[in-house]
Amino acid sequence: MENVTLHYFPFKGLGEGIRMLLTYGGQKFEDKRIPWEQWPEFKPKTPFGQMPMLQANGKTYSQTLALARFLGRKYGLAGETLDEAFEIDQNMDFFTEIRVKSSTPMFEQDPEIKKKLKENLDKNYIPGALKQLNEIIGKNNGHIANGKLSWGDFVIAGVYDALKNMLFQMPDMDEKFPHIKKLKDNVLSLPKVKEYVATASPKTEM
Ligand SMILES: N[C@@H](CCC(=O)N[C@@H](CS)C(=O)NCC(=O)O)C(=O)O
């Protein structure tokens, strides 16, 4: 691809998986990190008022999973059969559900309601959902599907720190769910990704 620019905030979050996928694919790209103060002005220029957003060959691409799947197809990381592709999609939909449900307190303004929402998730949802995700990854040798590397692994590894530190606020997540941590380590130990993370990855806890 020519003239490739990735737009995201100056942290890892949903943008980091896409940065790592582009790096894995050997794709040169401009890693444009939009500061929060400039976001209101930039937001209307994105297709859905959100980032990550990729521009390449004069076209605009958005939505994290669609983007990651698109790059995954380019780089041979999207399954070799329809069934393999399905397993990645299925397990990534489950992962996304966990991420989205767990973020509901973040959007609540009332501090009392926010606290109650978080307590309810911590008690009734997050531990069970992470246990199931951890088991899925355990059965797949430290990957989200098919026992091998796929685009889904990059999305999860990229957003791992944000989940642990911000959404779940779970300092012992690595010990509690070691297979999820192993998935992150598997992606971060890929040689090109390792070099990218050491030199260009945003130095943030999320
Ligand atoms: N469904 C979108 C969600 C993207 C999203 O939530 N982006 C956040 C940052 S992680 C964002 O742009 N927030 C700013 C806003 O909504 O104004 C995707 O998967 O890419």
From TrEMBL:
InterPro entries referenced in this protein's UniProt entry, alphabetically: Glutathione-S-Trfase_C-like, Glutathione-S-Trfase_C_sf, Glutathione_S-Trfase, Glutathione_S-Trfase_N, GST_C, GST_superfamily, Thioredoxin-like_sf
Domain GST N-terminal, chain residue ranges per copy: 2-79
UniProt xrefs under PROSITE patterns: GST_CTER, GST_NTER
Reaction equation(s) it catalyzes: RX + glutathione = an S-substituted glutathione + a halide anion + H(+)
GST C-terminal domain sequence ranges: 81-206
GO biological process, one term: glutathione metabolic process
GO molecular function terms listed in the Swiss-Prot or TrEMBL record: glutathione transferase activity
Its EC number(s): 2.5.1.18
CDD domains found in the cross-reference section: GST_C_Sigma_like (cd03192), GST_N_Sigma_like (cd03039)
Pfam families assigned to the protein according to its UniProt record, in alphabetical order: GST_C_3, GST_N
Transferase among keywords: yes
Enzyme class name: transferase
The organism's place on the tree of life at top rank: Eukaryota
Keywords in alphabetical order: Transferase
Subunit (UniProt): Homodimer.
PANTHER family: GLUTATHIONE S-TRANSFERASE, HEMATOPOIETIC PROSTAGLANDIN D SYNTHASE
Family of this protein: Belongs to the GST superfamily. Sigma family.
The protein's name in its UniProt record: glutathione transferase
